[in-house]
Amino acid sequence: MNYLAHSFLTFSDGQIVGQFLEDFIPNKDRFSFPKDIQDGITLHRAIDTFTDSHPAIHEAKKVFSPLVRLYSGAFVDVAMDYFVANDFSLNSLDGWKEHSLKVYRVLHQYEVWLPENLKRMLVKMELDDWLYNYRENQGIQFSMRNVLHKAKYLETDIPVFEAFLQNKNILQQCYNDFFPDLAAHVKGVNALLQLES
Question: C-alpha dihedral over 138, 127, 36, 7, to 10 degrees?
Answer without folding.
Answer: -10
